[in-house]
Amino acid sequence: MSNAVLAIESKEIEEMNHEQLAQWAEQKSRQIVERIETAVKRAEVAKRDAEDAKNIEIKWYQSSKKKVNATSDALVKANEAIADLHNLVKEAIQFSQTNTSLSNAVQQALSKMIEEGITDANGQVRTVSQGATQFVEKVQNEASRFATRQRQVEQLQAEHESKVAELQQRSDKADEALRQELAELETQHAANLDKLTSLIDNKVKEVHAQSAENDEVHDRLLAELKASNAELSEKSDANDSEHTRLLSELEVKLGALQAQVEAHKPSQLPIVVSLLAFGFGVASLVVALL
């Protein structure tokens, strides 16, 4: 069987709908069965020829070369026919395993032909020969096993893709949650920063206000102290002036008294002394009051 007969791209199969694929697979399966039958008949003929060559009777006066040549040619043809048959089956199996859809369609078509026979171009149904059936069944079984394996692989792939999608979904949700959390933290941080900045500004303003108030109080107290010192200094100057005046007056009075003492008689001395003592006492009292 030529590879061109069964050659097809998987993409071409995928473009067919179910009905088109079934019809096309049935057509190719019929070609496979017919070519297998032809190859089987050829192998069977070559095998019979080889057996006949072995059974050729050679007279005692004839050469055995004829028998040897006939046997050799028959065996070569038989081996070639068997090799062609196996290559045909191999190609048919490879063709049936192009993809899962084709494997299912070929397996179903071959199974139907084995059970119901082949309908030829004239509409006549004929049974697949017994010799060809075993090779057709081999192609059918391999197509069925391939389809089963592919379904398992596709199922595993689907489960894997589902798990990957689930993990991706979880990852996306986790990323979204993390982004939201980071956004909330940034918003909270900004709010706390604004609040802290406001508190610091208010505290600075309070400190500045308190400092200004303290400066004002300090300046007021300093002014009051200066005024009090000025007032005390003024009073002290006035007291000093008064003290000086009183002392001056006292000195004048004392001088007058002394003059009187010197002018009066001794009999009046006690009185003068008493007056002097009184005068000194008054002076001492004035000094104490100042």
TrEMBL record:
Q: Which positions, given as ranges, span the membrane?
A: 269-289
Keywords associated with the record: Coiled coil, Membrane, Transmembrane, Transmembrane helix
Coiled-coil spans are 150-184
Please tell me whether the keyword Transmembrane helix is annotated for this protein. yes
Protein's UniProt keywords contain Transmembrane:
yes
Q: What name goes with this protein?
A: Uncharacterized protein
Species of origin: Idiomarina ramblicola
Q: What is the lineage of its organism?
A: Bacteria, Pseudomonadati, Pseudomonadota, Gammaproteobacteria, Alteromonadales
